[in-house]
Design goal:
This protein is of the alpha/beta class. It has one domain: Nucleoside phosphorylase domain (Rossmann fold). The protein is built from eight helices and nine strands. A five-stranded mixed beta barrel has the order 5-8-7-6-9, surrounded by four helices. Helix 3 runs parallel beside helix 6 and helix 4 packs across helix 8. The two termini are about 30 Å apart.
């Protein structure tokens, strides 16, 4: 294991007594979940050795250890993206770090644009599969980790947990969508022609994140739950100019619903 990863893991161990088994990566505009955490320990990204710090508006970079529904969590506030210029190793650093710290289940969240017109801004979507149009794979290149080089993609998102997530949604009266996420590299939004192509490929929503972390999580054999917050209709489906401000605004509006769903999932996982 790279010494940089060991140093980062040791720093976090030195600053928190909790040993969570559930990790959450928060997408754009979804960081308000941290404010609901009990007895939080906030570790700024800049203080963690070798840890990459996000440069994107709406991503406050830190690691948060705390309790939600009395269950210990490892929360990533401020992921880093391919379009920021980070290497694949840096983008997936957090996943390998969580695995080293004993995380068993990862909940990966993102903001996404709807490609399927049955969805609307403000919806939450359980990711059942994905299409990688980022034109890079974080598992490629020189292997610096000892994990499986050629991981299988069968039931990449843990199908065994789909019903569990549905139960949490129903218990909180949340109309949860299901769909396939397409990931593009960004940072520009997709063109109307690209959106038509993505729809023809079978995707329901499109984002600029999530897929790299999910691929790394499969490599280190974590169980994976994916959730997308639909923040806008994609170009061509929407006939207005898209903006990052709109994404953040819509995500902020659904934070209460998002918190209820996450809390419900955490409780279901704890009983599982």
């Amino acid at each position: 294991m790279p010494p940089e990863l060991e140093q980062a893991a040791q720093y976090i161990r030195d600053h928190s007594i909790l040993k969570p088994q559930i990790g959450i990566i928060l997408g754009s505009g979804l960081g308000q979940l941290v404010g609901r955490v009990e007895s939080p320990t906030v570790i700024p990204a800049r203080e963690i050795p070798h840890y990459p710090e996000s440069t994107v508006t709406g991503h406050s970079s830190s690691i948060v250890h705390g309790l939600l529904a009395e269950i210990p969590l490892f929360i990533v506030q401020g992921r880093v993206h391919y379009y920021e210029g980070f290497s694949a190793e840096k983008i997936t650093f957090i996943v390998h770090l969580m695995a080293m710290l004993g995380i068993k289940v990862i909940i990966v969240t993102c903001a996404a644009g709807a490609v399927n017109s049955r969805m609307k801004p403000g919806d939450l979507m359980l990711i059942t599969d994905h299409i990688n149009l980022m034109f890079f794979n974080p598992l490629g290149g020189l292997s610096v980790y000892a994990e499986e080089r050629f991981p299988a993609m069968y039931e990449l998102y843990t199908a065994e947990y789909f019903q569990l997530v549905d139960n949490a949604a129903r218990a909180n009266k949340i109309n949860l969508q299901r769909g396939i996420l397409c990931a593009t590299s960004g940072p520009c939004y997709e063109t109307a022609a690209e959106v038509r192509m993505i729809a023809c490929m079978g995707a329901d929503a499109v984002s600029m994140s999530t897929v790299p972390e999910v691929l790394a999580a499969r490599q280190v054999e974590l169980e994976i739950i994916g959730l997308a917050c639909i923040t806008n209709m994609a170009t061509g489906i929407s006939h207005k100019k898209l903006s990052h401000e709109e994404v953040i605004h819509t995500a902020n509006k659904v934070n209460k619903k998002f918190f209820k769903l996450i809390r419900g999932i955490i409780r279901e996982l704890n009983r599982y």
